[in-house]
Amino acid sequence: MLGISRFRIVLIGSVLLAVLGARPYASSWNDGSRLANVEALVDQHTWAIDKSIFVDVPRQHELDPYSHDVPSIGGTMDKLFINGHFYSDKPPVATLYLAGVYWIAHKLTGLTAAQDPHIFVYLLTLASSSVAFVVGVCCIWSLALRLGLSEQSSFIVTASLALATVAPIYARQVNNSIVELAVFAVIFVLACAEKQRPALFGFLIGLAYTLDLGIGPVLVIAALIYGCIKWRSLQSLALCAAGMVPLMAVHHWFNYQITGMIGPPGANVAFLDYPGSAFSADNITGVWSHHSVWTLIQYAMEMLIGQHGFLLYNLPLLLIPVGVAGLWRAFPQWRTELLFAALVSAGSWMVYALGSNNFSGSSTSIRWFVPLLIPAYFALILMLRARPGLLYQFRILSAFGFMLTFSLYWFGPFRIVNLLLFWPIVALALGTLIWTLWRPQNVSTLELPASS
After folding, report:
1. 85 has which bridge partners?
2. In what helix (H) or strand (E) does residue 81 lie, and over which residues does it extend?
């Protein structure tokens, strides 16, 4: 009964945080571009976004779909100029889902983006980022119990993801990063389940692929390696591949129909050559843009521990280097899943280090890496399972992480962080972690599996 009550807290708390935190306006070029695509599909029956209120912003204050607490954003610049029209540079599959939500709401209530922009934005935020946040949080609870943590420790780990990382920040606006986090969470729950479901596993891999063409190919390769080792069955691999292919094919078909390209159109400099464009070959994602190997190494490290560093914005992850080395020996039953998590995380980091130089633009930390919170928390759960004494340090880092998240939460995911606020919290967290690790600790043993 206690476990049920804790799960109710997790579920109700995550729902309230997602619903109350969702914003009724766009706050950046990123979400503006996605929302423009949805409006154009349903209201104008075209993929071209020229006439969207997120591109051609109304002068009336009450009809402006963007945030009023920042200087005027103007229309989104996350767009491509193709054959005389502007198109969104965002992946099409997620847009089709949001367009379906908007179409249903329009038919039932008469809602239109042009006349009710704030209701439109809030609805689509709830239908995407809010739902994704709740799914991700609940999956971590399930994963922690499945991997053998006690209910109390599982609750602490779940609360850490929900309150001490960038996840709740990204739940506030429409974006693919938090949606992909939810897909990753379900993938890891399936991977750790007693009964394997290769077709469903492959379908989710295909879905994640359509959300991010940087991480997507890495995830597909890692999944096939995982399947070869885990299942050792041609039938299971075939089912997995059959699950992947449909959404991947839909993505590339729409991509080709809209842009004439199979690959990411945002990496085509010709589509960005228009008056007022904010992008060029020097700052787009998807092409080599480093001047030397040294600049590549420096950029890659800054993505982890610099002023945009993903580890520093998700402070509980700083515990991973302390205890990750012993997991392979401690958990032979989870070695395939550990390899899968390592391949996805390291591969995604390498892909974006090689193919970008802009730290994912104006966003809180590196938005591309938000889904990687799931494999990171998978490793943390196993660490706490093997060395329960580290729960003390984990709680400390989560407390500092909560302070950092709370200080950034109000600004949303698409803002440059005030470093005067950021660095003191990070310094205190690192100092406290080093101090507690330096103090003599009792030798930890494996925690007994949670009672059923």
Report:
1. 82
2. strand 79-82
For 397, the token pair is 């880092």
| pLDDT for res 70 | 55
Q: Kindly state the average pLDDT of the residues 390-416.
A: 93
pLDDT of residue 312: 96
Comparing CA positions, the residue from 235, 183, 172 lying closest to residue 210 is 183
Write the CA distances from 148 to 4, 120, 384, integer angstroms. 16, 42, 10
pLDDT-based confidence at 4, cuts 50/70/90?
low
Q: Using CA atoms, how far apart are residues 279 and 414, in angstroms rounded to an integer?
A: 17
Quick one: what percent of the chain has pLDDT higher than 90? 79
pTM, rounded to two decimals: 0.94
Contact between 230 and 192 under an 8 Å Cβ cutoff? The reply is no
Q: Is 174 in contact with 123 (CB distance < 8 Å)?
A: no
Cα-based distances in Å from 424 to 169, 309, 403, 418, 431: 20, 15, 11, 11, 10
Q: How far apart are CA 319 and CA 417, in angstroms?
A: 23
pLDDT at 32: 95
CA distance 222 to 342: 9
Sign of the four-CA dihedral 246, 95, 417, 296: positive
Helical (H) or strand (E) element with 247: helix 234-259
CA distances from residue 23 to 26, 133, 189, 278 in whole angstroms, order as listed: 8, 14, 29, 26
361: left (phi over 0), alpha (psi -120 to 50) or beta: left
Write down how long the chain is. 452
